[in-house]
Specification:
By secondary structure, the chain is an alpha/beta fold. The chain folds into 2 domains: 12-58 and 319-462, Aspartate Aminotransferase, domain 1 (Alpha-Beta Complex), CATH 3.90.1150.10; 66-316, Aspartate Aminotransferase, domain 2. It has 16 helices and 14 strands. It has helices at 29-38, 66-73, 83-95, 107-118, 132-140, 168-178, 202-215, 226-236, 245-254, 280-293, 304-316, 320-339, 357-360, 370-382, 391-394, 421-436, and strands spanning 53-54, 100-104, 124-127, 144-147, 186-189, 219-222, 258-262, 273-277, 352-356, 384-385, 387-389, 409-413, 444-448, 459-462. It has a 5-stranded mixed sheet with strand order 2-8-7-6-5, sandwiched between helices. Helix 8 crosses helix 9, helix 12 (320-339) runs parallel beside helix 16 and helix 14 (370-382) packs across helix 16. It is globular.
């Protein structure tokens, strides 16, 4: 008989069984239209109970495992030196052997602490592409956030294995022009969320490391989706095929001087994160801010049970069966939409499928927010909540001016271990239906917006 191992079959099954379920509530198109108007056409303002398939974010929305829930029962809530802290620390340093690990309640807290210490007016922080809170925390200090992704990363329909790579020549030129003393850190986001969840290669990280070494500038990772990035390296980069995922993760970490992390993504937890580095002087300053804003350095704003859930999650996220399922199930959605003629970012990212709203809605000008219009339509027609990643999120500058973002996308972020194939098949039907009537959609205008991170709370209305 032939080997009956999983690799023989084309169907990628979920490497888990469902242990507990929660109900979902269906609504009518009329009900959703009313809820949408009440929310100011901003999907962040909706009640989650009014959403059928929630693809707003993969951050903290996944299902935890049986073993994570069991670990929660072991959580020790001692204020200082909890055993849960030491299990968390060991799990982090197994994959990311940085000397100093500072727990935070989530990734943006790590960013806030770090940039409060190293940022400031006159400074510039390059990244392949800053995501929303990273950019906001850089700019809040008066520093400038600069995106230096490769040109291929700004072309949604172009197939390239590592569209998240940083433009190394542009990085070298920026540091030379601005002066290394004014570049406190270089960041690389893995995977590159704003650019379609695209991965960064080890070769590119080595090249960025070489530039940083030449100029004497530290390199940090935004590691939120490190395991997905490592899987893409394993599958796509020459010489990496079949290599154990934890080994790839450790090599990525070894090329950096530190990292920020939201454990709500590839920590497989509902809350938590950390800031890690090798520089003891900066770490001491960051710990002082942590105590002021987050908590004692052995809990950092987290309960002991949260530290336990993250520690267990870090062992599960590098499991090859999980990652194969995770990446393939995301590609399943992207491939189906592409086959139906819906413009998507190619190739599929790890955590989300990105619809190219600018290509689908060419009659809507970028400053009329085609991404927001498309996201609203998906909710109205099928109860699906996605997230605009475009001119609403990135078009406004610190001086108040506004220009179109590099791309206008709608991200359909897939929570980890949460939805089944039938849920995704439903998403395919709804997106295809909306795309077939794309010409009927109208642009949006902002009627109220905050001074920063406007996409979270701004209110819109349709244009005539």
């Amino acid at each position: 008989m032939h080997d009956a191992g999983m690799q023989r079959w084309h169907t990628i099954i979920e490497p888990f069984r469902i242990h507990s379920v929660e109900p979902m509530r269906s609504t009518t198109v009329e009900e959703r239209a009313a809820r949408l108007a009440e929310a100011g056409f901003n999907l962040f303002n909706l009640h989650a109970d009014d959403v059928l398939i929630d693809l707003l974010t993969d951050s903290g929305t996944g299902a935890m495992s049986r073993d994570q829930w069991a670990a929660i029962q072991r959580g020790d809530e001692s204020y200082a030196g909890s055993p849960s802290w030491y299990r968390f620390l060991a799990a982090v340093q197994t994959l990311f052997p940085f000397e100093h690990v500072i727990p935070t309640h989530q990734g943006r807290a790590a960013e806030k602490i770090l940039f409060s210490v190293i940022g400031g007016p006159g400074k510039v922080v390059p990244n392949n592409t800053h995501f929303d809170t990273t950019r906001a925390n850089v700019e809040f200090t008066g520093a400038e956030a600069v995106d230096l992704v490769i040109a291929e990363g700004r072309q949604p329909d172009l197939v390239h294995p590592f569209k998240g790579n940083m433009d190394v020549e542009a990085l070298d030129a920026l540091i030379t022009d601005r002066g290394a003393a004014n570049v406190p850190v270089v960041f690389v986001t893995i995977t590159n969320n704003s650019g379609g969840g695209q991965p960064v290669s080890l070769a590119n990280l080595r090249a960025v490391r070489a530039v940083c070494d030449r100029h004497g500038v530290p390199l940090f990772l935004d590691g939120c989706r490190f395991a997905e990035n490592a899987w893409f390296i394993r599958e796509r980069e020459d010489g990496q095929q079949g290599r154990p995922v934890p080994d790839i993760v450790r090599e990525m970490a070894g090329l950096a001087d530190g990292m920020t992390m939201s454990a709500k993504k590839d920590g497989l937890a509902n809350i938590g994160g950390w800031l890690a580095m090798n520089d003891g002087v900066i770490a001491a300053q960051c710990r002082n801010l942590l105590i002021l804003t987050e908590g004692f350095p052995t809990y950092g704003g987290l309960a002991g049970r949260d530290l336990e859930a993250i520690a267990q999650g870090l062992t599960e996220v590098v499991d090859e069966h999980y990652l194969q399922y995770r990446i393939r199930s995301t590609a399943y959605l992207a491939d189906a939409l592409d086959a139906a003629g819906v413009p998507v970012v190619k190739p599929a990212g790890g955590h989300a499928v990105y619809l190219d709203a600018r290509a689908l809605l060419p009659h809507i000008a970028p400053l009329h927010y085609p991404g927001q219009a498309l996201a609203a339509a998906l909710y109205r027609e099928g109860g699906i909540r996605g997230c605009e990643i475009g001119t609403v999120m990135f078009g406004r500058h610190p001086d108040g001016t506004e220009t179109p973002a590099a791309m206008d996308l709608v991200r359909l972020a897939i929570p980890r271990r949460t939805y089944t194939q039938s849920h995704i098949d439903y998403v395919i039907e709804v997106v295809t239906f909306v795309a077939s009537r794309a010409g009927e959609l109208r642009g949006m205008r902002i009627v109220d917006e905050p001074p920063a991170l406007r996409h979270f709370t701004a209110r819109f209305e349709p244009r005539d």
